[in-house]
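Format notes (please read before filing issues)

Several people have asked whether sequences and structure tokens are stored in separate files. They are not. Every record keeps both together, in the order shown below: the sequence lines, then the token lines. Line labels are part of the format and must not be stripped during preprocessing.
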Amino acid sequence: MYSLLADLGFRSSIAVWPLGARRETNSGGQTCANPDYRAFIQQLKQRGFEIAFHNAAPHPSTREEVIESLDCFQQYFGQTPRAMANHYNTDAIYWGSSRISGWRRSVYNLSTLWRKHGKFFGHVEGHPSFWGDVCRDRIEYCRNFVYADINTLYTCPWMPYSDPCRPYVRYWFSASEGANSKSFLNTLRDENLDKLEAEGGACIMYTHFGHGFVQNGKLDPEFRRAMERLARRSAWFVTVSDLLDFLKKTKPITVLDSKIRRQLEVRWLSAKLFRGTS
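Then the structure lines:
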């Protein structure tokens, strides 16, 4: 997977778990506690890929464990993570129903049958999993909303933005839907890429390369062809932090007010309810 991306000129951002499992996990996957996996990720960093944060481990973590994980990250990669994407852990920050505000939260809770309400505490002072102050001090960019439109910058022209209602994250960004191989390839259809290019936009693709991209040890040939077609286009293929740094230099940082916050949240709720985005 990553050899193909590197050979084609892509440099993506890879979110990792720094700590190994210490209790029952909530998902599969390797962690940086595995020396072979860690060496592989370190090699990717040397090749220009960005290593980002996916919470401390593949299970809920305490504040102390999150701090330990960030210290391990620093040791392994020579820096703290600049970007992160929440995993569905107790220590996820502003996640579940806390992603949105006002009446939109009620709609979200009803649509999810309250399954994601009151389960995420990374931003809740006094909870054993609180680490919001650490996040603010050590991580620059955090992903929140995922939209169906390939042009992430069209649906969220304010990114990277700050939200006074969620002060433990310095800057937020959004992404375009691609959680698995099917949705990833659907978003990157040629007609969508033509649209993105015509609009002069920018796309941050969200995906899990472990979800359907490799079968029996072989890359999905449709994915390979899609990446080869994409690489032939005149575009700038960079990590998420590189793109957000560029956007931050080209325009003032937006501090969300109630109107923009409502617009972002309504767009995301609509995409989630009617298009099945993440």
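For reference, the curators noted about this record: The chain is about 40% helix and 10% strand. The beta strands are 13-16, 50-53, 83-84, 141-147, 161-162, 171-176, 214-215, 218-219, 254-255.
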